[in-house]
Amino acid sequence: MRCLAPLLLVLALAAPAGATAGPAGVAELFGPPENLRLVREADAVDVCLLRHVAPAVRADGSVDRSTERYEETAFRPVPAATAAALRGLVLDDKTYDWPAGAGGRRPQFYLRLRFHRGDELITVDFCFLCHVLLVARNGVELGHANFGRNADLLLRAFLQVFPDDAPLRRAAGEAGLPP
Q1: Is residue 145 part of a domain?
Q2: Which range marks the domain in which residue 91 is found?
Q3: Which one, of 132, 107, 134, lies nearest residue 123 by Cα?
Q4: Count of domains observed in the chain
């Protein structure tokens, strides 16, 4: 028991106060199995660029994060081969660094990928600055994860839909992808 007490103390001190563990795998990231099925069996896949609308600043100088939002541009259909590649990447445990953490910066999402099946919708928002994605079903957040391991493959796939997008091309260049 004396050996166990110091170990427990070290573990307690190592965990930040109020920290919550992120998902430990794709199944946990996407929530119930029907969400994974929806992505696998989607009738349609489309994607848009997101425009970040900065949060308002209050009179006291503080930032009102509740006013921060994203505007969607027009959605583009994703070609079947690209949709299959994206589906494979977002459902692959090897894409992510597990367990998912909050990271050190606030994501600024740039792309929204949607998987449709009937009236149901799974969205995946991507930030290529910090390699974080956010998964939601019908607008309700399911989880987030760090996708740094396959960021280059995701960029390649998205460049097939948005080949002339300057910020995506810049991110690809920074990732060492050929022009």
Answers
A1: yes
A2: 23-54+63-174
A3: 134
A4: 1
∠ CA 75-22-147, rounded to 5°? 45
* Predicted local distance difference test score (pLDDT) of residue 15: 34
Report CA-CA distances (Å) from 144 to 7, 41, 117, 136, 166. 30, 21, 22, 9, 26
Task: With respect to residue 159, please indicate whether it lies within any of the assigned structural domains.
Answer: yes
CA–CA dist 19, 102 (Å, integer): 9
Question: What is residue 24's DSSP assignment?
Answer: S
List, for residues 12-64, the tens digit of each pLDDT value. Answer: 333 333 334 556 789 999 999 999 999 999 999 999 999 989 889 999 999 99
Q: How many helices (H) and strands (E) does the chain have?
A: 6, 9
Q: Is the pTM for the entire model greater than 0.85?
A: no
